[in-house]
TrEMBL record:
The entry's keywords: Methyltransferase, Transferase
Biological process according to GO: rRNA methylation
Range of residues in the leader sequence: none
Protein name: Methyltransferase
One Pfam family recorded for the sequence: Cons_hypoth95
PROSITE patterns, A to Z: N6_MTASE
Domain of life: Bacteria
Stored Gene3D superfamilies: Vaccinia Virus protein VP39 (3.40.50.150)
UniProt-recorded Gene Ontology molecular function terms: methyltransferase activity; nucleic acid binding
């Protein structure tokens, strides 16, 4: 079976989760926001609408091209998140919504924290039965988890020092 995400593999973030996410984040204008596993791009596009500078990463070329058509100022990378991420700069907020059943959370968290400034936020949307606590690398701490049905938003903060 191919590791590439098919269009049918998408699980767009529900409106409830998206609204909750942006209510928690508050004012994100002028911040650098990274949308990993962007899918339809709805999270990054909302961040852009709220004044953030957004970079999207999506493996599916058709979806990435669709995001390119929708974004006003954002940059879109097509490719595997774990291969694209090392080439990117620093972001105050990183949002990742990997497909359910994703197996590389530990690597994702380790790579992601390298792109956060001290105090930066890494948010992972995941299935409620996925426990990220034992996969959390040194230097990131879980600030909070919010559950919405089968979906959890885990908020990691990059430690200072």
């Amino acid at each position: 079976m191919s590791k590439r995400r098919k269009l049918t593999d998408l699980k767009p973030t529900t409106g409830l989760v998206k609204n909750a996410l942006f209510n928690i984040l508050g004012d994100i204008s002028e911040l650098r926001f990274l949308d990993l596993f962007a899918g339809t791009g709805q999270i990054g596009l909302e961040a852009e609408r709220r004044g953030a500078f957004v970079v999207f990463v999506e493996i599916n070329r058709k979806r990435a091209n669709e995001i390119k058509r929708k974004t006003e100022k954002g940059k879109v990378y097509t490719g595997d998140v774990l291969k694209v991420l090392p080439r990117l700069g620093e972001f105050e907020i990183i949002f990742a919504d990997p497909p359910y059943g994703y197996q590389n959370y530990k690597v994702l968290l380790e790579l992601g924290q390298r792109h956060l400034p001290e105090g930066g936020l890494f948010i992972v949307e995941h299935f409620k039965k996925t426990d990220l606590k034992p996969l959390t690398p040194r230097g990131l701490e879980i600030e909070e988890e919010r559950t919405y049905g089968d979906t959890v938003l885990t908020f990691f903060r990059k430690e200072e020092g």
